[in-house]
Amino acid sequence: MKNYFAAYEGSAEVVKEYLTDVLDFRLVSYFVMRQKLYDDKILKEYRSRYTSLMLDSGAFSAEGQDRPIYIGDYIRYCIKHKDVYDYFVNLDVIPGSHDEGIVTAEESKDNYHQMLAAFKEAGIDRGRLIPVFHQYEKYDYLKEMVDDGIPYIGLSPSNKERDKGKREFLSFCAPICFEPDKKGIPKAKFHAFGLSSFPILKWCKYLFHSADAKTWAQHASNGMIYVPKKSTKACSLPKGEKLAWQDKWDFSNPRLVDIGNHAKRPAWWLKDVPTDEDRKKRHEIVEYIRDLGLHIGHSHVERKHNTSYLGEWEEELTSSAKKELKLGHEKGTTEFMWTEDFDTHKDGTIRWGLTQDIHLRMYVNIVAIRWWHALLDPTTYTGPPEPDKTEEETALQDAFFDKVVERRKKRQKAKSAPKKFTRTR
Question: Which of 155, 290, 309, 381 shows the smallest number of beta carbons within 10 Å?
Answer without folding.
Answer: 309
